[in-house]
Amino acid sequence: MKSNLVVTLIVAVLLGLVLNEVGFFDSGRLIRGLRNLGILTSDMIPPDFTVLPVASRALWETILMSFAGTMLGFLASLPISIIATRNLFSPPFSRFARFVAAAIRTIPVLLWAIIFVILFGLGPLAGTFGIAAYTVGYLAKIYADLFEGTDPEILEAVGSTGASKLHLVRFVFLPEGANAILTQLLFMLEYNIRASSILGFVGAGGLGFVMQVYLQTLEYRRLASVLLLILVVVLAMDSLSALIRKRFLLTAQ
Amino acid sequence: MNGTDGHELALRADGLWFAYREADWVLNDVCLSVPRGKITIIMGPSGTGKTTLLKILAGILTPARGQVEIFDHRITNEPQRAISSLIGYVPQQLGLVRNLTALENVLMGALGRCGNGKVLFGLFPGHEVEKAKAALELMGIGHKADEKVFHLSGGERQRVAIARTLLQHPRVVIADEFVSDLDMSLAIEILGRIRRAAEQEQLTFVMSMHRQGLVREFAENVLTMREGKVVPGFRPVILQEPASAEMKR
C-alpha cells in the first residue's frame, strides 16, 4: 500500500513538471486558445454542404485505399506473426521476425506514405502501400502474441497426432485465434480509414488533399462538412464491424 | 516384449527421472510395465506426478533419465510424427479446437498420415473422412459431426477427443483423468465404449483416474503412484469402497 502511494506521488509530480514544460499552466495562452476555439467553431457553422460531391469522391478513394492497404498488410502479417511465434519457431527465426515487425512499426504511417510517394509518385497507390506497411507492423506483433497464448494442452494433443508445423498453424493457431484475428482486423480497418484521411496531405491520395486545400484557403465551413462526412463513415464502419462480429464470432447460445 | 509373468507387454518404462525445476524431482526412478490389450489405470493422490508420467509415456515430455519402450520401439527423444502411429494422447482438458466442428477435430487424428498439401485447405482424403465419421458413430455422436465443439456438452466433447485418438490408429492410448468432470452414468457409458474399442482393435489403454468405483469396474490392471514413484508390479490396490455404492450416487 505504502509503495503504491509513493508511485502515485512520483507520477503526479512528473506529470506536473511535464505539463509545466509544455506550457499547460500559462493561463494567458489557455484563455487565448479558448477564445480562438470559439472563433473557429463559429467559422465552421453552418457547414457548407455544396462540397459534398467532391468530398465524397475523395472519401471513396480513401475508403478503397484503406481497404486494399489493410488487406495487403493483413496477408503479409500472417506469415511474419507465425514465424515470430516462439512456441512454434526457435529463437533465431522468431527473434528475426519480431525485429522485422518492430522495425516496420517504428516508422509512422505518414512517413511511410512519403516514402511510397517518392517510390511510386503521387496518388492512391502510395497511400495503399503506406497503410499496408503500417498494418503489417501492428498486426504481426498482435497476432504473434495471440498465437503464443494458444492453450498448450491443445498443442500437445494435436501435436501428438503427428501433425506438422503447417498443420498446427492451419488447425490450431488460426481457428483458436479466429475471434481475436477478426476483431483486430476490423479495428485496423476502421483505424486506417480515420488515419488515411490525412495521407492526402503528403500527396498520397484520398480525402486529405481536399482537407488541406480547405485548411489553407481558410474555408472552415467546407472543412466542417468533410469532418462530418468522416464521422458518418466511422460510425457506419462501427456498426458494420459489430454486424460482422455478430455473424462470425463464437458466442454462447 | 514380455513381462515377468509371461504377459505380452505393450509398454515398459525404466528408471524415469523428471524435474520441472533443477533437482526438484517430480518422478524419481519410476518403473512400470503395461500389458497389451488391457485397460491399465494409474491411481494416486493429486500432485504425485501422474500427469507428468503420462506426458512422458506419450513422448510429450523428455525424462532427465530413463526410457520408455512401446512394442520394442524406444520412444524417448523421438519426434512426435515418428511415434504417432504408436501412441495417442488425450489430455485432461481434452485439447479440442473449439472453433472447428466435431468431424474436423476427429480428422486431426489423421494428420500424422497426411502431407502438407490438400489437407491445409481442409480437404482430407475420402477414406479418412469415412473413418472419422465411423469413429464418431462408434462413440455415439455421429449426429453431431457438423457441430462446432464450442456448442457441444462436456460428455460430447469427451467422445470427440476419444474418436480423434481412435482415428490416429495408435497401439497405446494414454488418457489423463479425462472422465473426471462427468457424472457417474455418463462416465460409465464412455468407459464402456472405450472397453469395446479396446477389445475390437486390440488397443491398450493407460489412464489416470481417481474415482474408485470406476477403477473397480473398468480397470484390468491398476498401478498406484505415491510421492513420485509407482508401486511396483501389477498388484491391484485394495479398494475401500464397493463399486456399487458409488455408482448409486
**Strand order of the main beta sheet of chain B, please?**
6-7-8-3-9-10
DSSP helix count of chain A?
10
Counted beta strands of chain A: 0
Distance between the termini of chain B: 42 Å
Shape category of chain B: globular
Strand content of chain B: 15-25%
What order do the SSEs of chain B take from the amino end to the carboxyl end, as H and E?
Answer: EEEHEEHEHHHEHEHEEH
Report the total helices of chain B: 8
Q: Roughly what is the average pLDDT of chain B, rounded to an integer?
A: 84
What is the structural class of chain A? mainly alpha
Q: Hey, which two chains have the biggest interface?
A: A-B, 24 and 41 residues
Major β-sheet of chain A, in short? none
- Report strand % of chain A: under 5%
Architecture overview:
- The complex is a heterodimer of chains A (253) and B (249).
- Chain A has 253 residues and is mainly alpha-helical.
- Chain A contains ten helices and no strands.
- In chain A, helix 9 packs antiparallel against helix 10.
- Chain A is globular and about 70 Å long.
- The mean pLDDT of chain A is 88.
- In chain B, helix 4 (126-138) packs across helix 5 and helix 5 packs parallel to helix 6 (184-201).
- Chain B has helices spanning 50-57, 80-83, 102-107, 126-138, 154-167, 184-201, 212-218, 243-248; strands at 9-19, 25-35, 39-43, 65-70, 73-74, 87-90, 172-176, 204-208, 221-226, 229-230.
- By secondary structure, chain B is an alpha/beta fold.
- Chain B is built from eight helices and ten strands.
- At the A-B interface, helix 7 and helix 8 of A face helix 2 and strand 6 of B.
